[in-house]
């Protein structure tokens, strides 16, 4: 059977009938990526309005398809390039989709697979182009009549884009693939965005994922552009989730998938987007510490693990965070210790202050680093502290960094950081008498001596 390219775009947005998650931890998994996608799709009731099918061997078509599936109320299943696994055929029969959308050309999903699928539905269409970028634009044109926002992700690699697909699905926004290292996006991408009425474009990932030149082009084209990035794939996903979801999903669900592969997150993004929940990325054996901080702040009633224990281990299911890593916040010796300062006496009497941190003699313009991973809870001017950054690390531990240089704060309020990530430059702002770092540690809200605290964690400040 040849692809049906005559049918009009789908554009009908249906409310998906999805089994909600009870409070607790759930795992949706099978022995391989195809079976895991089935376990995910089984949350959808039968008679779905649409089903998306993409290859399970590569990521690009599935990224765009996942957001489209969430938007129009259907799941995403994966197939082998040249044959539909028997279990996938059985799941399609159960879903009884009114329509199947095959994402990608015959080089990724063969004509034979298309014919197998055509026998399982009254309506089917292939949306493929000469490359992954054109295929994505065709999927978007079919699924979206309009969109106020759109995500832009690199088509070269998957890590930064996985959480974007779930977030886009929740927002009713499409995901456009671009050549992230190119100086511009193709004219058809700009035209597609304008045809949909897109006003805001969200870029997933840093400059190495989607070039600054592309960002400038999008701004010049008249779009409001926001970039969501972290120092790695895990923090980029968390940054996307923080911006899109905030605290709105408290008491609901959060999805967790491996950041080392794409398959489980693709099918999971269609479900997560369908229930307006974020998708976080994790290591196999533990949850990266800053991601654990974000999840604990969110406190979702249900955590949904995607993939088998060989992909996402039992420790993640139990909520185990990776060990906290500690780093020296700056170079330099201790020039001011924690505790009572020497009395200052005048003819009117003596007074004595208490130094609630330690001073490190960094000199001017030295890099200042986060002592451990966590979330920025303060970033700006704070009286005698001058330019100040405070980081919450979870478990009641916070660190503070004072007297940073004017223009020397490199982080923003709410940002998640990794241990050792640069947060600013040393200076002499506030009541400082010279360039140095004033470093504080809080435990349970109480300022404590940073030197022994850090020494117990393997960091000598002196």
Task: Describe what you observe in this structure.
With 462 residues, this protein is of the alpha/beta class. The chain folds into 2 domains: 24-317, no CATH class; 334-455, Glucose Permease (Domain IIA). The protein is 27% helix and 26% strand. Strands 13, 18, 19, 20, 21, 22, 23, 24, 25 and 26 form a 10-stranded antiparallel β-sheet that branches. The chain has a 4-stranded parallel β-sheet with strand order 1-12-10-11. It is elongated and about 95 Å long.
The backbone outline, from C-alpha atoms, is: elongated
The strand count comes to 26
Question: Helical element count?
Answer: 13
- Largest sheet data: 10 strands, antiparallel
What structural class should be given to the helix and strand makeup? alpha/beta
| Uncertain segments | 1-8
Q: How confident is the prediction overall: mean pLDDT?
A: 93
Radius of gyration: 25 Å
- Strand-residue proportion: 25-35%
Tell me the distance between the termini.
75 Å
In helices, the fraction of residues equals 25-40%
Number of domains: 2
Features of the shown structure:
462 residues; alpha/beta; Glucose Permease (Domain IIA); four-stranded parallel β-sheet; 26 strands; 26% strand; elongated
């Amino acid at each position: 059977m040849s692809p049906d390219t005559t049918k009009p775009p789908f554009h009908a947005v249906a409310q998906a009938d999805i089994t909600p998650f009870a409070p607790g931890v759930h795992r949706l998994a099978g022995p391989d990526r195809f079976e895991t996608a089935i376990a995910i799709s089984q949350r959808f009731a039968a008679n779905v309005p649409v089903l998306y099918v993409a290859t399970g061997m590569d990521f690009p078509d599935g990224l765009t398809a996942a957001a489209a599936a969430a938007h129009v109320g259907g799941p995403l299943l994966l197939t082998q390039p040249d044959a539909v696994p028997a279990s996938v055929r059985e799941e399609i029969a159960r879903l009884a989709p009114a329509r199947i959308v095959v994402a990608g050309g015959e080089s990724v999903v063969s004509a034979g697979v298309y014919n197998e699928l055509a026998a399982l539905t009254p309506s089917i269409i292939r949306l493929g182009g000469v490359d992954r970028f054109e295929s994505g634009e065709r999927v978007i044109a079919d699924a979206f009549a309009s969109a106020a926002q759109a995500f832009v992700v690199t088509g070269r690699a998957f890590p930064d884009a996985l959480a974007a697909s779930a977030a886009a699905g929740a927002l009713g926004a499409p995901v456009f693939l671009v050549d992230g290292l190119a100086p511009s996006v193709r004219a058809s991408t700009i035209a597609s965005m304008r045809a949909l009425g897109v006003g805001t474009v969200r870029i997933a990932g840093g400059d190495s994922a989607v070039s600054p030149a592309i960002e400038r082009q999008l701004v010049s084209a008249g779009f409001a552009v926001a970039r969501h990035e972290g120092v790695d794939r895990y923090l980029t996903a968390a940054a996307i989730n923080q911006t899109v979801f905030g605290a709105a999903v408290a008491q609901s669900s959060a999805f967790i998938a491996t950041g080392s592969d794409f398959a489980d997150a693709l099918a999971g993004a269609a479900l997560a987007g369908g229930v307006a929940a974020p998708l976080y990325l994790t290591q196999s054996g533990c949850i990266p510490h800053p991601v654990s901080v974000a999840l604990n702040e969110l406190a979702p009633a249900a955590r949904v693990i995607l993939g088998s224990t060989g992909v996402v281990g039992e420790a993640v299911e139990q909520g185990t965070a990776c060990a906290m890593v500690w780093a020296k916040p700056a170079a330099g010796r201790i020039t001011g210790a924690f505790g009572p300062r020497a009395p200052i006496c005048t003819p009117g009497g003596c007074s004595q202050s208490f130094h609630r941190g330690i001073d490190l003699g960094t000199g001017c313009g030295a890099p200042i680093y986060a002592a451990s991973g966590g979330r920025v809870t303060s970033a700006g001017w704070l009286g005698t502290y001058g330019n100040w950054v405070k980081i919450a690390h979870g478990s009641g531990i916070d660190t503070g960094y004072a007297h940073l240089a004017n223009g020397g704060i490199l982080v923003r309020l709410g940002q998640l950081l990794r241990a050792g990530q640069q947060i600013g430059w040393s200076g002499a702002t506030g009541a400082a008498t010279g360039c140095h770092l004033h470093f504080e540690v809080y435990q349970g809200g109480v300022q404590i001596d940073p030197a022994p605290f850090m020494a117990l964690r393997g960091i000598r400040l002196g």
